[in-house]
Amino acid sequence: MHHATTASAVRPALRVGFLLAHNFTLSALSLFIDTLRLAGDDGDRSRPIRASWHIMAPRPEPLRSSCGVSVTRTTGLIDPNNFDYVVVVGGLLDGGEQIDRAILGYLDRCDQAGITLVGVCTGSFVLSRAGLMKGRRTCVSWFHAEDFAAEFPDQMPDAEQLFIDDGNRITCAGGGGVADLAAYLVSRHINVDAAKKSLHVLQLQDARQGSEAQPHAGSASTDSRVRRAILMMESHVGDPLPVDTIAIRLDLSGRQLERLFRTTLGQAPAAVYRKIRLDHARRLLETTGKSVTDIAIESGFCDGAHFAQSFRTVFGQSPKQVRAQREKRVDPVA
């Protein structure tokens, strides 16, 4: 990736350093840097006048992204005080260790220096594993919400918003939300017009707020409140939230939430929630060797008989029948 950060006599208003996890997400890095690049200069000249950026690494070897494209560092692990923000770009969760000891130590130096740490994509996992998100709200993608909750049961994940600014910790779900986060920082340190320019050159609409709901293919509703309610449901499959609690979190009454669901989806919130939990149970029956009892509990059903009855009502088969079909596919000779 081409990168230019020539020295400037005047310190840029926004200075960002990047640390890349092994198998990092290329789109998260490129969207963030391009937003800075376009805001940092007039036109499309890419001079780091109002914003500057560095890709850091402890060694000069190329850094491989999850799609196989590699980039090279622009500097080593320089003094954290050179930056307003240090951004950790995460990537594949099952690709081994995401960062090495040198970067882990550098993150501690940033923390001690009071530099704001930013985790994008699965960068939130990196910061959490480093012990740097204790007591903080952490934004994670709906796609990785269950992975996060399983690994960090004592933390406060939020799979509903695009990004969360929690003082000197900022976390972002990734995807297109990275551009929104970068524009948010550009607006804060440079100006709103610079942020708009960046997004419009990138053929993106005006910046979304961090509190806006993450888009989700599982929700057919165009109402953001319904989408956020469904994200809450999907983030609490094993420990179902009362529908009234979901309504309160959305600043709605129970009746208002009920009306929204029936208007947009044709179903009550409780019915939608039950289907989400049953879909989760069916995936586990078809893809894991867990017992039916364990799957019922993991899907938020404390009564096995009620689980079996609800499952048969929705799918026309019992959980044991679905499990038997899986076992027949796995061992067709048996």
Structure report:
Helix content is 43%, strand content 12%. The termini are far apart. The protein has three domains: 14-201, Class I glutamine amidotransferase (GATase) domain (Rossmann fold); 224-267, Arc Repressor Mutant, subunit A; 271-330, Homeodomain-like (Arc Repressor Mutant, subunit A, Orthogonal Bundle). Strand 1 (14-20), helix 1 (26-39) and strand 2 (51-56) form a beta-alpha-beta unit. It contains 13 helices and ten strands. The radius of gyration is 23 Å and the shape is globular. With 334 residues, the protein is an alpha/beta fold. The strands form three sheets. Strands 2-1-5-6-10-9 form a six-stranded mixed β-sheet, sandwiched between helices.
Q: How would you sum up the global shape?
A: globular
Multimer state: single chain
* DSSP strand content: 5-15%
Mean pLDDT, all residues: 90
Structural class determined from secondary elements: alpha/beta
Pfam families: DJ-1_PfpI, HTH_18
GO molecular function: DNA-binding transcription factor activity; sequence-specific DNA binding
Organism: Fulvimarina pelagi HTCC2506
Domain HTH araC/xylS-type: 227-325
Question: Topology of this protein?
Answer:
Layout: E1 14-20, H1 26-39, E2 51-56, E3 63-64, E4 70-71, E5 85-89, H2 101-113, E6 116-120, H3 123-129, E7 137-139, H4 145-151, E8 156-158, E9 163-165, E10 169-172, H5 177-189, H6 192-201, H7 224-235, H8 243-249, H9 254-264, H10 269-287, H11 292-298, H12 304-315, H13 319-330
Parallel strand pairs: 1-2, 1-5, 5-6, 6-10, 7-8
Antiparallel strand pairs: 3-4, 9-10
Helix pairs in contact: 1-5, 1-6, 5-6, 10-12, 10-13
